[in-house]
User: Fold this.
Amino acid sequence: MDAVVVGGGVIGSTVALALARRGARVKLVERGELAAGASGRNHGLLFTPTDPVLVPMARATTELYEEVAAEAPVPIRLDRAPIGVLLAAGDDDVERRAGAAEAEAVAACGVPVDRLDGAGVRGAEPAVSEDVVEAWLLDDGRRLDPAALTVSMALLAREAGAEVRRHVAARALLTEGDRVRGIATDEGPIPADAVVVAAGPWSGALLRDAGVRLPTVGARGWLVHLGGGHGTPSRIVERAGWHPLPDQEAVAPPLASDLAAGGAGPNVGSLIHPTVDGSVLAGGSRQVTAEPEDPSVPALIARRAIELLPGLADHAVLASWSGVRPMSPDGRPLVGAVREGLVVATGHGSQGVILGGGTGLLVASLVLGDEPPFDAVPFAPDRFA
Assistant:
C-alpha cells in the first residue's frame, strides 16, 4: 500500500507513524515546517474530554503517547500522572452553573472530582483570587511539549520507513474516475493507493476542488507565555465556562455581512498552567479566521489571567503566539473515507493533541481495512450530509 499523508501537524504525523508501522509505504508531505501550525502552538495538555463519545479516542491517544515517550527522539516531557485541574467560579450564578455542569460532565467520563468551598479553594491553591467562592478539583491534566510530540511522531515514522518531505505544498488531488490516485505538488505528482488529508483548517481548500465539502471552520487561538515567580499555581487553573461541553465547541462559519460589520470579535477565557520549566502559559481565545488577526487578544488574556491569579501581574512576558484550529459543528473530529482512495482527518478543534494518537490509529485501520480500535461511526464525515 502506497499512502500519502498531507499535513505535518500532530494528526498527520501520527497517521504517518501508524501506517508506516503497519507496513505501508508512506510519504508525509508538509507545506512548511513540522508542527508549524496549531500543533506546536497550544497548551500541550491532555484532558479527559467532556463528551463521552470522545473518551475511547482520547484513551487510545494517551496509551500511544505513553508508548512512544521512552523512544521519542525529541523529549516530549509527558507527565507520568495528572497534576490536577482547579475549575474556579466566582460569585456569579451563570459561572457557578457552568462550573458545576463541567464538573458533572467530566465525572461522568471517569475523572474523580472534589467540590471545594471558598476556604477549600485557598487551601488547595493559595494564589487564586479572593473572588473565587467555589471550585472543583479534577484529578486530570497531563502536560507535554506539543511541538516535540509532533516532530517525534514524524521522526519515528521516518525510522519506520516513511518519507517525510517538508516545504512541499500539495496543490491538488489526482483522480482517475471516482477514485483518488495521489496528489499534485510543487515538485510534481505523487501517486498513491490512498491519500489522507490531515491539513487542519487548510484541508477544505484541497478537498473542495475534488468535490468534497466539509462543514469545518478555522478558529484562531492565542496564548501568552509568562515567566515564573510568586503566584505561580501548583496545578492547572481554569475559569468556569471556558472549557466547552459537548456541542458547545462549534464555531459558526462567518457570513460576508458579519465580516463587513467588523466581525464578532474574540471569545476570551482563562486557562492557566505551570509548565515543567517553571514558566506559565495563559490562554485562551477563539476567533474565526475570516476576521483579521487581532493583536489585542493577548492583552485580554493577560487581564483575565491576572483577575484569576493576581500574583501573575509581576511575571515577565516572554512571548505570545497564536494557531488556527479546525472546528466542526458538533465538536467531534471528522475522520473517515470521503471518496474511494481518499480519507480525511480534521475538525479536532482545540483537542488535536488530546485526540491525535487515537485518530492516527483509526485512520490506519480504515486505510488498511483492519478492525478499528474503537467505534468509528461517530466520526464519519458524512454525518452532516
The radius of gyration is 21 Å. The chain has a mean pLDDT of 94. Residues 55 and 267 are 26 Å apart (CA to CA).
